[in-house]
């Protein structure tokens, strides 16, 4: 019998990148292609840079590093921080 439960955790990503048109849609794409919808999104321009904070209340743990890696590959991204919160185990 297979275990259909998956571990999920709250997650927050902070991205600092050069401000340019289209950056926000590129930052959201790694989430969208994994069918993840942010619970919170905040973007703030800081001079020539844009700081984007994305929060998810429940994200599969195995996707955390994949999304962070994809965010780091976006042209113009200078820094990515990924933080995970409390672990929750859900039965599918």
Shape: elongated
**Roughly how many Å apart are the termini?**
14 Å
Question: Would you tell me the overall average pLDDT?
Answer: 88
- Neighbour order of strands in the largest sheet: 2-3-1-4
How would a crystallographer describe the biggest sheet?
A: 4 strands, antiparallel
The SSE string, one letter per element, is EHEEHE
Query: Helix count, per DSSP?
Result: 2
Low-confidence stretches: 88-92
Number of strands: 4
Radius of gyration: 14 Å
Produce the secondary structure layout.
Blueprint: E1 6-18, H1 23-32, E2 40-46, E3 49-60, H2 61-72, E4 77-90
Antiparallel strand pairs: 1-3, 1-4, 2-3
Describe the protein's architecture and organization:
24% of the residues lie in helices and 50% in strands. It is built from two helices and four strands, in the order βαββαβ. It has helices at 23-32, 61-72, and strands spanning 6-18, 40-46, 49-60, 77-90. A four-stranded antiparallel β-sheet has the order 2-3-1-4, covered by helices on one side. Strand 2 (40-46) and strand 3 form a beta hairpin. It starts with 5 loop residues before the first strand and ends with a strand. This is ACT domain-containing protein. It comes from Pseudoroseomonas ludipueritiae.
Which key features would you list for this structure?
single chain, 92 residues, alpha+beta, 4-stranded antiparallel beta sheet, 2 helices, elongated, disordered C terminus, ACT domain-containing protein
Question: What would a concise description of this structure say?
Answer:
By secondary structure, this protein is α+β, with helices and mostly antiparallel strands. It is 24% helix and 50% strand.
């Amino acid at each position: 019998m297979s275990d259909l439960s998956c571990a999920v955790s709250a997650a927050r990503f902070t991205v600092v990148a050069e401000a340019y048109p289209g950056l926000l849609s590129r930052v959201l794409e790694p989430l969208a292609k994994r069918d993840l919808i942010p619970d919170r999104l905040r973007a703030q321009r800081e001079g020539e840079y844009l700081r984007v904070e994305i929060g998810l209340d429940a994200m599969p743990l195995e996707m955390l590093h994949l999304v962070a890696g994809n965010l780091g590959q976006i042209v113009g991204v200078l820094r990515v921080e990924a933080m995970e919160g409390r672990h929750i185990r859900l039965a599918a």
